[in-house]
Amino acid sequence: MSTTQRILPKGVSEADFDAALVRFREILGADSVLTEGDQLAPYTKIMMAGDDKDYIPSAALLPTTTEQVQGIVRTCNEYKVPIWTISTGKNLGYGSAAPGETGQVILDMHRMNQILDVDPEVCTALLEPGVTYQQLYDYIKENDLKLWLDPPAPSAIAGPVGNTLDRGVGYTPYGEHFMFQCGMEVVLANGEVVRTGMGGIENSSSWQVFKWGYGPYIDGLFTQSNYGIVTKMGLWLMPEPPAYRPFVIQYDNPEDIEEIVDVLRPLRIAQIIPNAVVIVHTLWDAGTHVQRKTYYEGSDSIPREAIERIKQDEGVGEWNVYAALYGTPEQIDVNWKIVEQAFGKSGKAKIMYGEEAEKRGGGFEYRAALMRGDMNLQEFGLYNWRGGGGSMWFAPVSQAKGSETKDQTELAQKILGKYGFDYVAEYIVGWRDMHHVIDLLYNREDPEETQRAHDCFAELIDEFAKRGYGLYRTNTEFMEQVAGTFGEPLREVHKTLKNALDPNGILSPGKSGIRQ
Amino acid sequence: MKLTRRQLMKNGLLLGASVPLSLGAAWASDGGLADDPAHGSISLFGVDRSTTELGQGLRQQGWTPRYEGRLDPLALNVQPAGTLATGFTDEAGLVLLTSLLAGRGRVLALGRHDAGQHRLLSHRGPIAAPLAVDAGSWQAALGREYARLATASGSVRHSQDIKRPYGESVSATELSFLVRL
């Protein structure tokens, strides 16, 4: 079957789009305006259960400067061309590099990739949106700076700016990324540039150290939103600690999740365990390097008997807690005793570190690397678990209480089971909250299974919302539905802001369910 | 000393580090090839028999496959613009590859080779060869077809499903690609 039909932005005539493309080429140069099918193909690859035809861009633009972004935005206003902004385009499972809807022009910021400043004394960085974690990591190592990053799991190719703007998380004590962001430069929809926080003061040395500036704090408006295009962002980097002890605590029974969370919570709030701890289910721990078909060929949910075999063969528990201690050796020794005592009480936990943990197998090695801010791509292995290229992250938030965790786990397993999918999940433990991250893996090559995954995801959103659980982040196919669960008053505020800041609705229409 | 990825790339230590000698030897002794390679080199990724066969198909059409071992999409970043690359990978590799090509390269063709069928997608117009095995393996036929698409000038997106012969031995889904950086 051959396809030659030209894709145009919604509501834009061919003549106007051609005129806009001419202008884009004047601003960027012809090589930075992509319109050919084979160039745009990478921007059409999605992993969520949507229709491929709904996520095809009409063009992609590759700016290298803030001034070019200003020119693009002014042109878009003139011709009413909608753009969908990506930084490195690696939001895999949440929409990847594809537009929010067919016809939008991709504004791909990956060539804006300068590390503008790294200050090893106050431990800050100022970055452009195309900088990747690997690039920043290399810079730090090559300059022998004693600083750590906080990358997300599939980290090397993703970038700190995009991940922070989507409010992603990592695994060191700096795991809640937006908390450690400081100062932005933003191109507004009218083409003007604003610097947030202390950035408005000419020659300010405080832009990357004092978040709040003066007057209303607005940085949050530019996260998970479509109110502006972030062209520079400051972030705080963790000083390398004198010592570091990663460890794993293994529990064997499904119901142990309740105890784990209740033991962990006070340790997290008191910062005895300072990092973003993960509680990983068997199928995630094994799924990064094991294929499902080795244990089960059926198309329904993997049965308990197979899960038990995986636990046996891989040496992993039903729940596997990966955490770390940081500080001086003396501090670590003191805190280790507290951890051992807390988790040792019930006699259910198997606590391991050092050689014993390394020998155990499972995900210890790559988890230990992530918890000290090192790069790896181990979690891409999850895409081989079921095969077929389908992946959607379902990520509801809960309080860090065992009762809520138990409730969420049972609800998720029930709904996933009804649709024949596996519970491949982990909890990321914040200070007082938990991100329950479930990878809904399915075969996108099978239309029936894709529809089933779509229905399953929609039901997960609705049923979790009925029990008071909302998602912290979602993919472009379900942004509208998730926004609906947060209620109309909030949506009205979002819409009012959108109309005030972007009256032509040219910036990422539909992002987080926000439109004119 | 622990080297960063960028330093490894600069030193050329990362690429091709796992080239199986047996595959190189297979090509060295391969018969039935074009006498004079007409098209230059093409990076070839993968580690099993399918990759060898794909390489043979390419060579039959005048390409010189340069074996790169298991696909490390990050390694593609340091290859010069215009480099052609093909081969087989897994789901994770395909996700990485396509996402890394955004704004950096072109997807000329992709193939998903399941038990029942070959599903081919070309951005270089229609797929001509039915991947018949009467002239060798389907992988070699795919190599010949990818060799043709690598030089084709069409820009039409074309997808085609090709039924695989009954009884053909298939162990698992294989994913092929042809891209230009």
UniProtKB/TrEMBL annotation, chain A:
One GO MF term: FAD binding
- Annotated FAD-binding PCMH-type domain ranges read 48-240
Q: Which PROSITE patterns match?
A: FAD_PCMH
Q: Which domain of life is it from?
A: Bacteria
Record has Oxidoreductase as a keyword:
yes
Cofactor requirements of the protein: FAD
GO BP: any one term: lactate catabolic process
Question: What InterPro entries does the annotation carry?
Answer: Cytok_DH_C_sf, FAD-bd_oxidored_4_C, FAD-bd_PCMH, FAD-bd_PCMH-like_sf, FAD-bd_PCMH_sub1, FAD-bd_PCMH_sub2, FAD-linked_Oxase-like_C, Oxid_FAD_bind_N
Q: What are the boundaries of the signal sequence?
A: none
Key words, A-Z: FAD, Flavoprotein, Oxidoreductase
Note the PANTHER family from the entry: ARYL-ALCOHOL OXIDASE VANILLYL-ALCOHOL OXIDASE (AFU_ORTHOLOGUE AFUA_3G09500)-RELATED (PTHR11748:SF114), D-LACTATE DEHYDROGENASE (PTHR11748)
Q: Which protein is depicted?
A: FAD-binding protein
Q: What is the lineage of its organism?
A: Bacteria, Pseudomonadati, Pseudomonadota, Gammaproteobacteria, Oceanospirillales
UniProtKB/TrEMBL annotation, chain B:
Q: Signal sequence: where?
A: 1-28
Protein keywords: Signal
Q: Does the keyword Signal apply?
A: yes
Q: What name appears for this protein in its UniProt entry? A: Uncharacterized protein
Organism equals: Halomonas icarae
Its taxonomic placement starts with: Bacteria, Pseudomonadati, Pseudomonadota, Gammaproteobacteria, Oceanospirillales
